[in-house]
Amino acid sequence: MANKQTVLITGATSGIGLQIATKLHDNGYSVFGTSRNPAKYADKVPFPLLALDVTSTESINDCVKLLLTKTPVLDVLINNAGVFLSGSIEETTIEQAYKHFETNFWGAVKITRAFLPVMRGQRSGKIITTGSLVGLIGIPFSSYYSASKHALEGFFKSLRFEVKKFNIQVSVVEPAFFKTNIDAASEHAVESIKDYDDIRKLANDFAEKSIAAAPEPKPVADIVLKIIQDKNPKFSYPVGKNSKLLPVLQLLAPGSYEKGFLKKLKF
User: Fold this and answer.
1) Which is deepest, 6, 137, 201, 213, by most CB within 10 Å?
2) Which residues are bridge partners to 129 per DSSP?
3) CA distances (Å), 147 to each of 217, 218, 241, 248, in order?
4) In the β-sheet with 125-130, what is the strand arrangement from edge to edge?
5) Annotated active-site positions, please?
6) All domains of the chain in start order, with CATH
């Protein structure tokens, strides 16, 4: 019965999203992925793709209408679409920051709001969002990315309480470093301030080496499957190297944490 559930996952054509969607499809779930350009990927994935730009209210509404012509219910919504923005706070324009939040935060908020009436009406559903370890601890030169993931944590923690009575369960997955195309597809700050050159290089080198040495994101897909199969899933699911340790260390021993982190960065 469980493997007949219908799942919609945003950003399903690459990286973590593709891993999750393929895993669920292979386990018998009725998976619908989304892409801004579904025709480009239609013959590369084993599940149907719907057109969706999470920054466009019109596109979101069209996606909801189209999905409901294909299925009467939505059992699981997975908010995975997102981008990475690198650069110091000073070097990143406010326009870039607004655009970044439109995708990473408001995109997830808007698609969730669009499907809440469906899940509330059927008195069931799971909402799973791809957060990040970076959204719990923060890292330099990723301030707006970190902030967008922090914002998702707060939003979905609150939503979890609001929709509990409707049997809608809310969880956030918080991956550490995994090997994806997030660095290759990342956006960079428009400006470049010479004073930041040395530490920016150190931070970028650290991130690149961490991703290069990281495993494939299969464990993230495994966790998502576990959440879907669990009758009473938790809110927070850290996954990957040090994903549980670092937030606790930062909370209980902030001085030691900061000293160790700066040492790793060679700041």
Assistant:
1) 137
2) 79, 172
3) 22, 25, 21, 19
4) 49-51, 30-35, 6-9, 76-79, 125-130, 168-175, 236-239
5) 145
6) 2-265 (3.40.50.720)
